[in-house]
Amino acid sequence: MGSDVSHDEVARRLRRRTIDMLWRAQAGHPGGSLSAAEILTVLYFGAMRIDPTRPDWADRDRFVLSKGHAAPIYYATLAERGYFSPELLTTYDELDSMLQAHPFVGLPGIDTCSGSLGQGLSVGIGMALGARLKGSEARVFVLLGDGELQEGQVWEAAMAASSFGLDSLTAIVDANRLQLYGTVESIVSLEPLPDKWRAFGWNVLEVDGHDCAALAAALCAAAAPEITGRPTVIIAHTTKGKGVSFMENSVEWHSAAVTDELRERALAELVSGAAS
Ligand SMILES: Cc1ncc(C[n+]2csc(CCOP(=O)(O)OP(=O)(O)O)c2C)c(N)n1
Predict the structure, then answer these.
(1) Rounded-to-integer distance, Cα 220 and Cα 215, Å
(2) Which residues pair with 142 in a beta bridge?
(3) Cβ 118 under 6 angstroms from ligand 1
């Protein structure tokens, strides 16, 4: 990690910054931001080969936040990693801010726009093919929501990625079991999800998406030399709203405004680690 701060502590800081951004803006997506805290921490403070002082470095690893509505925790991660000042986070969702509700290129560290669900894996394929053409060893990581997997384009991309033998591509599914309207299972079932990815030619790993060591090990395994010619998907089992008790497993907190009182409660829990 390059510092003595633990991954868990970084994830907690990202959650606190996220709550503050959402409170200030009185808008945004808490649940799907909080579920991804450890995933982003392990990527940006361990797995990815990046240099925040050179965001345009040609051989950097690439990240695509396909579930673009989780922008707040993404911005918090980039700030925490040193791409820009954390002060900029106070402008989240303001008119003319670089930190819009969904990511767009222009902010240091962001390689692609996102927000329209279903498209990010296709973008990641393009990045991985581009790196291959240039002889670059850059790896590409794409974070998808499980509700997002209900978009057909994801499966077209999944088919293409294995057909192209893109072993430099890793998809991570933030499998928090909820989407906007309810449980993923009750709306359009994805099961058996690991078998589906396998049938599409992918190497499949499953982990507890809040266990930083397990996530780090899975990301390492995805890059192992024996995984040749196949992309890897990591199905990360997570809790929507993780870290704030009243947001956990709550579809109401997919998108909702954080009041002054709830901000205080959330921040207090994120100091003490009161939620499960
Ligand atoms: C193409 C498209 N349709 C609808 C939406 C609106 N939308 C935003 S978030 C969301 C639910 C996504 O669920 P999931 O992928 O599980 O995300 P998470 O639970 O991790 O927040 C929807 C339908 C969108 N952004 N893009």
Answers:
(1) 9
(2) 64, 171
(3) yes
Domains along the sequence of the chain with CATH? 7-272 (3.40.50.970)
Centre of ligand 1 from the C-alpha of residue 188, in Å: 13
Q: Full-prediction pTM beyond 0.85?
A: yes
Nearest CA to ligand 1 atom 19: 179
The DSSP line for 225-251 is TTS-S--EEEEEE--TTTTSTTTTT-G
Q: What is the pLDDT of residues 34-49, one digit of tens each?
A: 999 999 999 999 999 9
User: 69 and 102 in contact (C-beta within 8 Å)?
Assistant: yes
> Is residue 273 very low, low, confident or very high in pLDDT (cuts 50, 70, 90)?
low
Residue labelled with tokens 């969702």: 93
Q: What is the pLDDT of residues 98-141, one digit of tens each?
A: 999 999 999 999 999 999 999 999 999 999 999 999 999 999 99
Distance CA 43, CA 37 (A): 10
